[in-house]
Please model this.
Amino acid sequence: MQKLQGIAVSPGVAVGEALVMDNEGFRIPRRFVSRDAVEHELERLDEAIKAAGTEIERNRDAVSRELGEQYGAVFSAHLQMLRDPVLRIELDGMIRERHYSPEYAVSRALRRYAKVFQTIESSYLAERANDVIDIEKRLLRNLLGRRREELDHLISPVIVLAHNLTPSETANLNRAFVRGFATEIGGPGSHTAIVAEGLEIPAVVGVGNFLTDVSGGDLVIIDGDHGLVILQPDEETVAHYRYEVEQHKSRAVQLAKLRELPALTADKVRVELLGNIEFPAEVEHCTDRGADGIGLYRTEFLYLGADCEPDEEVHYRAYAEVIEKLEGKPVVIRSCDLGADKVSFDPEAAKNPTLGLRSIRLSLKNLPVFRTQLRAVLRASAIGDVRLMFPLVTTLLELRQAKMVLADVMEDLDDEGIPFNRELPVGMMVEVPAAVLMIDHFVDEVDFISIGTNDLTQYTLAADRSNKDVASLYSSADPSVLRLIRMAVEAAGRKQVPVNVCGQMSGSPLYTMLLLGLGLRRLSVTPSAIPEVKKVCRTVTIDQCRRVTEHVMSLENARDIKNYLREELKKILPELVP
Ligand code: PEP
Ligand code: MG
Model:
């Protein structure tokens, strides 16, 4: 058994068979064969090695012809490895003595070799690990043939293990079969993490190199509550986690009873509890849990995974679907927040994507695209309670420009006789420290603000939200971030501008008392977090929250703050503290 610590990004636990995704992920369906099948399996291995050898020879000859012998030599090295008698003896032994299937034997043996190369401190040898993985893939392809099961065509439950998953790859995971996932890289605030939470798939990111320690078909546990990945767990551990899975289910059933009850504090202060969504299908995840509406609709996900640029109709249909499902409840549609770790259009982006052309900056540079979206939002405003929000607003000028484009689009619709809500509420995300510092001006020019703690944390602490190596620095509980939140809430309060928090922070019950104590009465959270946050709201009084907040604001670092909040939550709702 091997226990690996990563970063917990999506809660829940999952026990299942690994599907190891490299560039090309496919799954080993069986790990063991019966005693009488051994001879037949050895023959299959023999055929696969021969077929793989022929393929490599073909590649070598083609490359040598085109580019010269020296380039073909790479393939000669592959052939040597493939036909290495020591490897063959090891594989035969695994099949004959341990009754491993040839697929499992190939994966186990070659991953062990790759691991050795990887751990040697030489970049040349580390590269050789990729050659070994390449041979593994080639052999597996030949062994599995058409029975190969790839991520796109799963037929039974798996746990996906990958070096990295992009937000759109994550969004396309088949929830019916993917029970959980873990990645080697990735940080706590990445959009991959956010999508995993939205899809309610237990997930751990930033585990570091571990893919060579695991083979497809191995039993794996993902503990999304504690950020653990457990490879080849022993029986006792499996039993413990199977019990945990049941516990999660029964806790969800208990919390589901809160569905019809409002988020009302013990001293009868109403808190508006909204959901964050990426896809129209998630609206039900919110309404099923009694959300008061959608506080953040991340429309950029219309672009992710799409073959072409979404046109006005694509936008409109998505918004209309959300509105219809909400049955009169409000939705805050955020204009596209593309760029950074989602999809980038900036050729310079590779250097510093989070500080580059993203979000409202990108929209203002691509006016036709921006206008298309605004037209769809305005049309949607005629059929439901729609509000519009701009992301990553940094300067007043930017906000004014965005509002001018909106006014212009309104004029066009007027000329065309297309109905829309003239009083469409317009708000902005507050997620850049510059915007907080100028917040007293901003609140004069918007109908509402929504504090995006994910980006606010990243920009305040200069710590990339997607980078595991600075994950310990990246904390929304840092006192500097909390001071900025307090500034924004107070400025909004003075002008009676509604203020919301929609970053991941608001979805953690750990922070509910703190946020209420800071004066927030509107929280927009990951749908799965609605019941727990509501439970905290219904348990506490505002006075109690204010006392907690006062103490928090006197502390000097994120660790002390989190520990204190954990203790406070434990006093009132111990079952919510993992
Ligand atoms: C945020 O930054 O807190 C936020 C809600 O927006 P996103 O996570 O989509 O950047
Ligand atoms: Mg943001």
User: Anything to note?
Assistant: The domain at 35-147 is CATH 1.10.274.10 (Enzyme I; Chain A, domain 2). The pocket of phosphoenolpyruvate (ligand 1) is lined by residues 194, 296, 298, 337, 431, 452-455, 502-503 (CB under 6 Å). The chain has a mean pLDDT of 91.
